[in-house]
Amino acid sequence: MLTIKKTSFTFVIAFCLTVCWLAGSAQTGSVNNALYEQTSEIAGTIIRYGQDINAIKDFYSPYNVNEHAEDQYKMNVLNSPEQRRRLVEVNNDYLKQLSQADFSAMSIYGKVDYILLKKRINFELNDLQKEDEKYQQITKYLSFADGIYALEKKRRRGDFLDGEKVATEMTAILKQLKADSATYSKLQGLDMPLAKMTRNALLGLKGRLKDFYVFYDGYDPAFTWWVPEPYKALSNALQKYSDMALSKGKVITTQKPDSSGIKGVPIGRDALISQLQAEMIPYTPEELIQLANKEFAWCDKEMLKASQEMGFGNDWKKALEKVKNSYVPVGHQPELIVKLYNDAISFIKERDLITIPPLAEETWGMVMMSPERQLVNPFFTGGKEISISYPTNTMEAQDKLMSMRGNNPYFSRGTVQHELIPGHNLQYFMNSRYKAYRQDFSTPFAIEGWALYWELLLYDKGFAKTPEERVGMLFWRMHRCARIIFSLNYHLGKWTPQQCVDFLVDRVGHERANAAGEVRRSFEGGYSPLYQVAYLLGGLQIMELKKEMVDSGKMSYKQFHDTVMKENLIPIEMIRATLTNQPLTRDFTTSWKFYDFNK
What we know:
Blueprint: H1 6-26, H2 30-36, H3 43-60, H4 71-75, H5 81-100, H6 108-138, H7 145-156, H8 163-185, E1 190-191, H9 192-216, H10 221-226, H11 228-245, E2 249-250, H12 269-278, H13 285-309, H14 316-324, H15 333-350, H16 358-363, E3 365-368, H17 371-374, E4 385-388, H18 397-406, H19 409-413, H20 416-419, H21 424-431, H22 444-460, H23 467-491, H24 497-508, H25 512-524, H26 531-551, H27 557-566, H28 572-580
Parallel strand pairs: 1-2, 3-4
Helix pairs in contact: 1-2, 1-3, 3-5, 5-6, 6-28, 7-9, 8-11, 9-11, 13-14, 13-23, 22-26, 23-24, 23-26, 24-25, 26-28
């Protein structure tokens, strides 16, 4: 969501770092503080690491991946064995460099960057090892591949080739490919991830073969005489094989069958714990479900208070129904969003909670969400721009009504600042300007946690003045509790997608179509298993850090919020280490218990 093109920043960052280091060596005090807004002792290593990895990927990847393939196919082209080997070597070389660095002499900023880079490298090495292990399982269906890799290697440095010999080699490769594909076609089924890997390897081989061919064709007379027909036959066979590859894939899942039509792959408890550790969340899935239920109980009490004030007693769903039916007339949703944005910005500015750059206020954008996207995202989203989810003329009448009810003014009031300023839009603005080299260390617990934190903070500060406004904000808070509960129960293999949908409808009060879209988004939308969990947990992390730094009087709200923003989207525990100047070790592991179960 908050992606930044690495190459566009490389020269600027390197130049700024050089200037900052020179300035820092000449002066002290505030200059050094300004210096650490942009860099650390490890920043240069992080930039070099990113560029070295990109250099390997650019050099060893095919230029001419099938131009007719869908974008995701282009992006998923498999590393060649040679490329994978070089990535492992470069990553291990950087681990060695880190081991030789004087960790104890670094500032807290350098230590944090050291830990984040080491974590990133180990993550990459683990992924490469898993990739290689999976690749070894499909090599028998790709025994012809070495011949294409050998041709690609000759092309890189423009070796002179015998055209007739190349044609003979391609014919031999084609013969072996046909034998391999015949073997593959007889499979009764293959684990879907392996089938996708086979497809991606074949698309990569087709692109590599085309790189080789277009380099010589038309320039070398003998090559142009002998090679075109064997090349065409081999390229077509690769395409045919890649088209067939996925047909043998079989989804192996522990998901219990149900009637929702939503398909996913529960990852299991061990994988959840591993991912939680990688995200620096030192809790078990069961503890997090307990946490969410505790937060849910608080929401229930608050919702009942608001319902009683509205005259509905303990029937909070009737209060929710009234709020849903407050939707604006057709065509007026964009102007509502602007009004709600202005309300939130005025509230924040009056309390001097954070620095808002004028250019950030000037340049946020607005677009309308397509009906197709609304199927998996029934509510508006944000980032560089806010994407408004609202009915179009192509939608069925009941779907139009559900969309309007689900995006009513009171629901929207609680989340406009989540999507724009000081939420995702300000993140996008600031993260491209401060410590941009940390972009590869970003985590949804910071991305979504920061935006969710503002919902929590504004509620505490009285942004919701009427019971209807409180209902709107509490709906979303209950929703984030529910996300933790249904996501983790699903991945633990305890709940079906239909149970998740029913839970959102019955326990939170979602429109059924919106609930189905939310669950589909969680399990089919390309999100990591912990992404939906990250909203409330990340927000609670920042709230706890706020208590530690602001409520104690160590920092003002503005100082706290400005500082957190300038540390970029790294794990909150590492931001805390920076703000508290926490003693850190080279082999740091997560340990911050940010939630008090006894409160």
